[in-house]
Queue: 4 jobs
Job 1
Amino acid sequence: MHRNGPTQDVNESLLSVTHPKQQAAGLTAVAVALKRAVEEMGVVRTARTLARVNQVHGFDCPGCAWPEPTGHRRPAEFCENGAKAVAEEATLRTVTPEFFAAHSVEDLAGKSGYWLGQQGRLTHPMVLRPGDTHYSRIEWADAYQLIVSHLRAVGSPDEALFYTSGRTANETAFLYQLMVRSYGTNNLPDCSNMCHESSGAALTSSIGIGKGSVSIDDFDAADLIIVAGQNPGTNHPRMLSALAGAKAKGAKIIAVNPLPETGLLGFRDPQTVKGFTSGVSIADDFLQIRLGGDLALFQGLGRLLLEAEDAAPGTVVDREFVDTHCAGFADYEKHIRAIDFDTVRVATGLTADELRRTAGLLAESKNTIICWAMGLTQQAHGVATIEEATNLLLLRGMIGKPGAGVCPVRGHSNVQGDRTMGIWEKMPDTFLDALDREFGITSPRKHGLDTVDAIRAMREGRAKVFFGMGGNFVSATPDTAVTEAALRGCALTVHVSTKLNRSHIVHGQTALILPTLGRTDEDLRDGVKQQVSVEDSMSMVHLSTGRLKPVSDELRSEVAIVCELAQAVFGPDHPVPWSQYQRDYDKIRDAIARVVPGCSDYNRRVRERNGFVLPHPPRDSREFRTATGKANFAVNDLTWTPVPPGRLILQTLRSHDQYNTTIYGLDDRYRGVHGGRKVILVNPDDIAESGFHEGDLVDVISEWTDGTERAVSGFRIVGYSTPRGNAAAYYPETNPLVPLDHVAARSNTPVSKAVTIRLKRHDHLGGSDE
């Protein structure tokens, strides 16, 4: 059954604004999820598909990486946005060769990302050759040979880039990095570079491993949970159930965010009686922090905890833990005691009472978890901020005990698993040595390029081939004009994708689109159903099994694409048994078991009911594999983001009808924005002071210390509860405002949460879109 995608594109003139919602989820979320699913999949396909999401013998949701419960799983183990993600992938809408024949690249370039994504699943491999105006069909073998010719034409393997999105399963990720390293480069940029790279850098320095230390069960044992720089109601909605469960068992929950996020203020769980009636208020306290003030917050709390220890010696600082397991406490203590409390109040925008109340809860807590997401990582001082949050937990002995620890909440499903499988431009020599022993290859040891450096290399002509395994690179990255020009300078761009997106339209001199199976699709090899595995945000590895008939016989699994391409690149005498791996994914997992730390006996353990958990030395045994052999207290200067006179500090964020770069619809229901996306949320007092009014159309101009400016136009001002001097707007529409070189120290992550802007009245006649 075929369903056509929408013919109409976004019309921002239809945008309307209502009051923000006070409660998330509930019956409205159920109704919206089912409506979207039925529109895309039909009634029968919807029922069959949603019943299998996140179930033991089903498939892992292609949305976020929040873990499944280890005990009883509910019949509907998914959220509203998870249902939207599944519907997007399992849609009956298709993008065929006939579609491309009817739409030139120039025509498609004028469409929004929303319109492109809504057209449906890609069905055939397509090519755009130099001088072509339309993509046309190409046979798989010819597509592989085209790629091979370009890979052989470059002056060095380092002139090729191999990007990965978080959706890629473990088996694909392992083979992909193996192919790339066999080819001779470590150029493996991935989406982690743009989101939790700051977390990895901070945690590796502090505790010796760049992953969170808590499990889903720890939420039941916690008595204090801090959720900082995160919006679970939209980005990880199933987390709300875990928070509600913790609250029911007596935990206190503190929300730290510049915007009041509906999910943390009120939650109606549609699968409980209370959810149908009154719901629950998740956050016991809401700290409405200024953008860029989180580092100051954690340092100020550290000073207050040390003062509380002075007042009651032996009751606040866990001396046994600090003395036995930590290094650098004396330097940290000296530095934090000198922190100016007035500066902390100015930087955070919080009152002394709010700070002391929070410090009191930290001092009293027996089991504390600190969670965070992009609100912390995408700051210029994001690494230092996460180190300071970790310092608080170390001071209190909150690592390596039930109900306590660090919890970076990863975004895309399996983004953490990809890193475990070797998708990183700086994998340690121990991993590369194991890879070489297993396969008889010689992996390069020179570090490769991350996402930002990959764009720089394309911009400067140092990279000629771009290969994207999933994702929407153009819309996910900063500095849109620079990124698009960089890609257009490539000799070849290749995208392995399930659906049409903006990256297919911003192409190199030659471009390929290779259609692949999704999580929901049945993957048969010689009549045998194959399964893939994924790792969630808390290091649990489990199987995922698609069951839907693919929309086209031309679709290849990601594993098949990698194996077939590798055979075309290396020929039949390569030491890696690519053809065996293509036929039987168990053989891939056997190799993973011999190479990847913590994955021994992979095939047996991954088939256990909940899969298996990867080792985490700080969590498991309070072992810290750092240079000192201990957990390290970090010392960082107090850095924050002041607001220049007449300016605002902007953060980019997602709409509720969005996941990463995928736009499901045009309603940010919780924030009261309907029918459009070009809005900027501003404090009403700032609106009045600037001489504008709510509803005015403005151009948003970012300003940089080098004197350069960037602009997007035609945004509607919406009065919203933000701290004075702060503003918010959706990405990718505001990505053009973020320069490529505006990155976080020590992680090279684009800084999208601290952009200095000014507003200019939009000229309806002379103004133009970005």
Job 2
Amino acid sequence: MDEVLLAADRTQAHDQVAAYDHLLAALDLLEEPLALVIDDLHLAGSGLADGIVGILTGSAPPALRLVLSGRDHSSLRLEKLRYGDGLKEFRTSDLAFTLPEAMELARNLAPSAEVDVEAVWRAASGWPVALHAGFVGPAVYKDQEGGSGGVVPGRAFTEYIAEEVLGQLDPSLADFVLRATTCDWLEHELAIALSGAQSGGVLLQECIRKGLFIEEKDVRSDGPVYQWQALFAAQCREILEERNRVLAEQLHRVAARFYQDFDVTESVSQALQGREPQQAVTSLVAHWQDYLLRNGLSSLEQLCLDLPGPWSDHAGVLMIRSICRALSGDSPSAVDLAHRAFTGLSALESGRRRRFELYVDLLGLMPNDGSFEVYGISGSPLEDPQATGRQPAALDSSRPLLGGPGFSEQEEEPLTLLASPTADVADRDHQAVADEVIITSEIALAYVLAGDFVAADERVVDAINGADELGWSPDGQMPGLWLAQGISSYWINDLAAARTHLDKVLPAGGRETSIDKLCAVYRVLVDCARGEPTQIPDTTHLLTSLRDTGLNGPSWSALSTIAKAKIAEAEGDLTGALAMAKPLEDRENPALVDALLAELLRRGGRFAEALNRTKAVTERQRVSYTGTSIALTEALLASKDGDMAAAHERVEYAVALAEPQHIIRPFAERRDELAGLLTQHAVWGTAHEAFVAAQLKENTHSDNLTTFLYWRLTERELEVLAYMRSMMTAADIGKALFISVNTVKTHQRSIYRKLGAASRRDVLKIAAARGII
């Protein structure tokens, strides 16, 4: 080959075609593989495909190994090779450093520095240049709320992005990237909205072809969904804010309006970043139930309190706070907030006002005199349908209640979590009943999320009765109602009923709702608890098919991650489950996630980390079921450490939360480990003897009940023995078992005789020593 190249007629160098032909002829003579490495390919520009590199990619002989490296090679014609055997591509994920590689880099760059390598690696997603900046520069990585990415406030890294990445793009594409990274997630319609032109969709596709820090993450019925590399997007936002703060805030407002009806978390966050609290209130008041589903009761109330004035005193926001207080059992505060809200409702049209009036009526927040007139609303007071013989006026249940200082009504019709079933409700009275059914269903779901299953059950019955009156079929048309029943059935440990109810939450189609997502998570929990391996694959598919949005604040990614970890645990892969859940250990999560994560960590022997997750959940976040679960984990951790006083205090706290709402699941899933502690707790003393005794009864195993005299206790004697571990009297035991006091005493005498015991305390000691209890 060398001879051919040296013998070339240099006078023909100006003839590009002849030169290329001569080069290819020489390469055909290769007898051994030859590697040609070309770096910084992106610097070649748009003429890359028509130059020598383009010729070689299309016509090079098999012996030539062409290694191309750069940020962009989109102009090369590689499709034929991509679907054959001649192309191997390494993309961002392939080039990202693993954690061991990041640790090695940190040791080489900053051996004496105190750097949280794992936090930096997770925030940078393994991006080598970002890791370098984190290890040697002044950069500080911070986990984003609800996401795994982070931000690097160091100027050097920001300038690198501006100069080395954006500065080498075509100006129109660079401008699009700065606009489109307003949100971490992107789709076709949002790309157009942020770019301000129909070309936004084309520019989005160009970013994807170039591999410009964006990847396709999901495909919905209305098109694909993409995600920017979080660290890159954060730097782009910082650059745009420095260059044009007005434009940056405007784009946040555009995103807020885009997300308004299907992701209230993202909409509120974007609106506040865009300094448009009015938009935040619009989305929040329209879809507060969705925020409640995503983030929990305490987060919803805190968001209302965090809104800037005067929007924190907006009538709709005050009503949401009133509902939160009512769901938390703080009736005086709820009534006071409702009274304050009414002073700002007079400007609203009657339908919107009546919707909140119905909430107030159903939650028992009426003023003492039953009148709304004293709160600035003109017209007649809210009438009692039974007193007047008329149903309440028709409500517009599909529109949010707005109002307050400087508020203008929106033209958009927001989506509702609980879609109104299709039925003939033209009659005014039927419309009023329909509105009440829908709102009653919403209240039932809200009560469940607040941990009050008893109140929720009452609302469920009311809603179903109302639906029957209207001739509605709730199946598939009232998903929130079935989700409420599915959640409560799971926590009371009626797993068969839970699966039945959750199966009725039919997907609505199009954009997934928060109800779909929470239903998928609970289906995982139910299937794992039931040990249904045949159903878990379908549930896993449902879970992974739902997109994670709500990136600001506790997100669905945390719930889906812990659900996947539960699946791994149920399949016997505890190590894999812990690895999946690792990213959740050092960030803010919904209380349900932390409750499940803490127990998973405890079972995996990571006791310190488990205790840290229990401490991350505040008292306000510990509703009945999350509080019970966390307290039992804390009790087992304390018992392991030998702190029995703390263990018994935590058990008593757990049973105090669980008994009023009949919560059994946290006890059932820890049954074997709790057995001894509960027995000790019954002797230690409890104000909830019947509940503790019932849990002890469930711990009795019939396979190990033979006494040393080879006497076998009868089933009824075993039941009585289980209750004897509590402080219950014979009369109390009789009531619990629906038998007479004399019958209880007869069984007790038989137990004493068979075990050779002289007293109740002896019975418990002997039974425990011999494995009967």
Job 3
Amino acid sequence: MREHARVVVIGGGMMGCGLLYHLAQEGWTDSLLIEKGELTSGSTWHAAGQCPSFIADYNMAKIHHYGNTLYPKLEEMTGQYVSWHGCGGLRFATNQAEMDYFKKVEGVSKLIGFRMQVIGPDEIKAINPHVDTTGVLAAAWTLDDGHVDPAGCCNALAKGARDMGAEIERHNRVLDVKQLPSGEWQVVTEKGNVTCEHVVNAGGCYARLINQWVGSDVPITNMKHHYIVTEPIREFLEADTEMPVMRDPYPSAYYRQEQKSGLIGIYETEGAEEAWADRGGHPEWDSENELFTDELDRISPWVERTLERMGIWAESGIKRIVHGAIPHTPDANPLLGPTGGLRNFWQCCGSSIGIAQGAGCGKYLAQWIVHGESEINMADLDPRRFGRWADADYVRARSIEDYEHMYILHLPGEERPAGRGKRQSSLYDALKQAGGLYTTASGWERVKYYSADGSEEEAGFRHNNAFHAVAAECRLVSENVALADLSSFAKFDVTGRDAGAMLDRVFANRMPRKTGGIALAHMLNDDGVIEGEATVTKLAEDRYYILSAAAAEVRDMDWLTQHAAPGEDVTVTNISDDYGNLVIAGPKSRDVLARVTDADLSNAGFRWLTAQEIEIAGVPVRALRVNYIGELGWELHCPMAGMPAVYEALMAAGQSDGIGHFGTYAVNAMRMEKGYKGWGSELTNEITPVEADIERFVKLDKDFTGKAAVLQRRQDGAQGKIVYLELEAGDNDTTGGEAITVGDTVIGLTTSGGYGHRTGKSLAFAYVQPDYAAPGTEMTCWLLGEARKATVLADPVYDAGNEKLRA
């Protein structure tokens, strides 16, 4: 076995082989995959092999579609059998909310390019005459998906990788992974050691064991999963065409034709079981090809429902039962990207449908490893979206919930109970008592809106009972004064003699020169694409306070710590859980705040976009005159333990002014009216400041990471441009990932949106082809299957001159 490689991939299942293949395609043929048994011997070999197109998430849809275009030609490309069955798929809708969801996915299909039609019961019966459509309103017919032989497909990717020059070492158990003083990695195996620049954990069900070697963990729960293969079915023996893959919420199952037999895969909606629960949730490292004894009694209610649907199977015997483990993550997305706190130790695991996703995950992760970014937005796939708060209990509870809801639609506004309460601000109980309804973000409980009558949100895709409650909150902020707890921001103290110089190099904007100055700044990589966005406040010559998105906490900590140069006197401290953030906003906010502090809050004494360290109710507060909603106001950052005292003082001081509360739904509505772009939606690793129209925050008279690439992009011209849109109002608004068309041509997609209650406008951001970016240009946005006229705006629809912020 070789002693050096550029990349070592640990694990020879679908994810590992998919990555190796695409690393070789990107030119990194000096890559080595090590598998402790035979290729596919983990969970790949016993998978059912489904490859669906039906998915509403734009980036995940790209991953699925890529596999469904590669697999049909992979056998011819490699000479290794794949056994692609392009039979298409049907997914049933049994209520109106699912019908709305189908329309949303149909919009994604326009963007991605997979064929999809929403069809009625008669058309369903024409495609699959054997299925009982009782209670079915419609089906999503995805014509381009199907299923493969999992082992064959995985081996075809492996053969393709070897043909391009990559190497595979089978029957070689990895024993340890160590980081060397040089920063390189040493992979210790039974057959010797390999030194490499990058290590990738593609261990599937064994991924947690692999990460533990480097003092880390991954948020994966291995779940037991059954599928059953029947004896041959007479109707299939006589048929010339293959039945499509059926996905059905009634039995919570997929079912299809397997050769001339039937195949039924069950996702229990209750009582699902973790695999190897008595061993900490993972298999022994020396085990291979592990299956469990079948538990037919446990899954029989769902099997019986499937047989109601497919009556021709009811009297058939069982030929084979497969009861194996599949990994699930708390949010159903795979783990693709770096490991927090470690350099060049990557994750390629956590996929619950790894056959469908293996090729696409491999493609886009390979791009990230080789080039520093991917052509799709990786934020929702990055393993660092989970922090230390995602402990074993949280991961287990959320992953089991994900498994049990495989075919149960998670509606917008629906709050599921598993894993809740991991991170709470010190105002949690007080705001709940005030009527706050909580949702979660990066483990944080945060109020989405306040319910006057105590009723929960009526979850769905269209305007609901939250709509008018949020409108009232926006009026309160714009006409009076209100408070919001936005403690979920990621928060960092950056200190040391060289802190300012380091930050000036890391961020494209110029760092504040004066104490109390505030800058909105962006982190770029060497290719000029956006890695993060932060608000940077200078508290002293050697002390800075940085705020960024909740979901970027671990990612931004990595970026800041890993970009300090050797010998620099810089310390980065994550204080996200230690500090709270209470926002006070509205035309009366200055009056209320003045009653609880001795600080001079006048425009002359406390200018917009500056900060001061003040005191409220005996609590030291970092007061920033800045906010995300476009009204006069302050962000009040203080030790979490002191925030209740600050809150109570403000509520008492504002009682005569009718002070109230607002939540994150109102924040989003108001930020859309101000035209404020968001990290992870508008600002992603796919684009540079040129496409995002944030060049005013890029100071080309200084050196910073990515400067040369930004200059080159300005010279070459952007391939897409962001636009700010007003849509014809309806009973729903943009959520992101909707198609934008002109005539029959798709020219872009939305990134986020919402209804602006202060202005009565439905608003959205979108990326479109540059020829359509001029103000006044009209286009069509597709929302839940409805064509809405959209017009490009030149300026924010609310207070474009920032007069209210400066008041």
Job 4
Amino acid sequence: MILKLIANTRSTSLKQRVNGLLSYIQNPENTRANNLSNYIRQPFVSQPAWDEDALLEKCVYANSRNFLDDDPEQQKIEMLQTASLNRRVEDPIVHLVASFKKFEVPSIEQIEQQINILLRHLNAEALQVQYAMHLDTDNAHYHVVINKIHPFEKNQHQQHKCVNLGDGWILNALHRSAAEIEATQGWRSEPNPMFVYHQQSKTVVRNPDYQSAPAAEKLPTQILDQASRHQQPSTLQQKIDFAKSYQQYVETAVQNILRRVNNWPEWHQALAEKGLTFEKKRNGAVFQLKTFSEQITFKASIFCQKQATLPQLQNTWGAYQAAEGIRPKAVPDQEVQSRVVSPSGKSKVHPFHLFQPQDYLVAELHTIYLALKTQKDQITVQHQQASAKIKLDHESYQSVERDIKIKQQQQKYPSIALARIQTALDDQHAERQQHDRAHRRSQYALSHRQLTAKFVKDELLKDELGQRLWSSSTVNSAQITSYTDFISQLNREHPLVIAQQFLLDQRQSGNFIHAPNPACRQAQLIYDKQLKHEPIAVMNQYGIQVFSQYSIPRIQQCLQLIDAHIPIEFSGEPSFQQQAKIALQHRDHQIEDPNPRHELPQLEQIASADLEIFFDQLYQHFQQHHNLQTAIFKANLLLSCCQVNTDRLERNLKEYSDEFFNFNLQAPDRNNLMLRLKSVLCTQPIAQNRQYFNAQDLDCVWQIALKLEYNHLPRKTARIINKPRPEGGSKLVIEEIVLPERDPDFLNEVMQELQFESRKSRLQQQFLEISEISSTSNSLGACQRIEIEVKPLPHFPADRYQIICQFEHQFYIDRELNQTAFIENMYQAYITVVSPLEVHVRDALFLAHARYGEVMISGNEEFKTQVEAIAQQYQIPVIRKEHLEQRQTSLEVPAQPSAVGVTEHERQSNRPQPDLTPPVEPQQRNEPKPQKSGYGNDFGF
């Protein structure tokens, strides 16, 4: 979350500020009405006709503290009167905004907890506070208005005390509050937080890994805002970025020279050999670097160590001496730019700080926008010149022409009174001014109409892709004042627009492949090989940032762009790190994508009982890494990508919440969550929403469908129902509901047969193969708990097998025989051999040896004997499971349980379930627990 202090830039009066702010947070102006109105007139096929008034609901919750009256209008008067009790304070009103990420919607209880934390860090618990939550923008947020004047405490001057919020460090207090709120409520932290919260000590401390922005990059807010509007760095930013590309060379050279020189002549001579000069400028000094193509100037106090500043050098060597007769030699550009070093502590730097905003732009769209902006700026200049000419004409009339014309008219018409002449001339001038202004406005509008028509014809209709770009033929270029405005005018289902909207949300992705690549001087987007317009990562000199829709084949696409000799390190989500390590293991062998287009089943006709099962399983899947609201939001969003109607999602959520008390989601919170979900569905196409989910999330949906197909999920369920008593109160009733048996061809209902026939058969085959693992014990595992390492695969014929990652397993399929040879668990150290052929057993043994070292054999006697014979032939260390247990017993070491190596993900999904017998705790949920994707097969090492 972001906590931001809103400055009073308009310098409004106290009365205007109090009335304006309190009125706004209660009834905010809708800044999104036009966009939503345009969007909801073209709803998706799976969605109903949207209720515009409901979607534009703004203030969904408001509250206040430390007021005598509960009426908001009376609270305005009360706050104004309290603020007036100390006349020495010019602006005692403080305005704060707390904003959340795209899929985060806090509950009312959480908002109250956040206000408690915020006021405690600000020392404002006794002050008058109003706050309200809004849902009228792309992010859920709430406003806080604080009156710094204490209601009853007085200072030494016998005036009401003005509380110094945060002891004078209000921004630090906001950072501390955000750290505690994120840690205690489970929200995702912003990149590079200034403070962190310790759960054990319950204190907020400064983040030791925090990296402040260099002084050279701290630009005025106006420049940063302008750059953000047009997604284009300012001239000053470009100069700074250009200088930074040579900064490492200058710093290294200066540090080495300082160690070995003792006076000014030696200093100048040593610098000249490196292509540098050191010159005095006013009270400071600058370095100048000379290359074959450029001459770049660096300010010593900013870009280099403090020891190289003019005062420091003068203290050491005396008064400054200029370089006489010493000329620097030019340095090759390649030698300078090749010295790129990754930031210190690279594993701790969030990729957000390694990329620039312009690295996330779709070049085709931004180029069109800049061309439009250039021509639009020319029209603006002409408009301003015409306005200035009209204004100059008016000033000239007032100062000179008016008196001259009055005298001329008096001489010509001496009988007419002076007042009548003055009035007539003023009326004529006003009429002419009004005509000129109207003509200027009409010309301005005409210029923009012509620009739009010409622009659409010349720039966008060159190919079929461009012809589908504009969402409306009535676009007015005068209304496009930023790159965001430009994108909003385009067809939202256009592939390039979907890619751009998705990229703007991916800047904070923490999935990063650390791999120094000095040759990649300019960041470049990486697009999927199958879906040409879908970006999956962005690469620069520090590595590759991977976006949310990752999969093992897509990670492999990224790894292929990195030199094989460069050391690689992964950071980010646990799921990403696990899949990235698997992709690195098979770096030289392509893993085939079983779902290259990231398709999902079509659930628009699904039965209500099955929809509840889908939602329940997806909610539990997302709950492992998200808090309650985000897990609910993402589960519903994923179901909407499966064409489930939003009204059905809302009804299902209500029934789910009413039946199960541990869900702990009150009706207002549920309504706010669905309102935010509808807003996302209105403004984003399904193709974009699907990109927020990785392959593991999509596999979870297919697993549920297959479990329902083969009745692996129980159809008879017991539910807790809270039934009200006639005399009031309520009681818990366990009611058994018998659901009807399902059609055995359930999967046909959720898949389009013509398009998915081959995929359907493969899904079913892999599902059955994993389901049958429990019936066989022929497996090769590790003798001890080990970390998965990248090892060479001796004697393993990788080209013989087609490798597919599905359902948290790796399937090795013999290409010639078109049958599965063996299956490797992606997160546990064992390989199950499903083929009796000796060549497959041998290759599985090679793979297990490369993965685990000494191999543990378990299974029937024939299989063990077969493996031992092959192991003896190739000198591979193996041991039977029973022999390993005996060896552990002899060493008096407890045998490892079968679930050793099971990840936190499996431990959570296999936790014991509550009994259905009374008494029943209100917070327990009595429902059979769904099986894990391994279907109950927890093989150990």
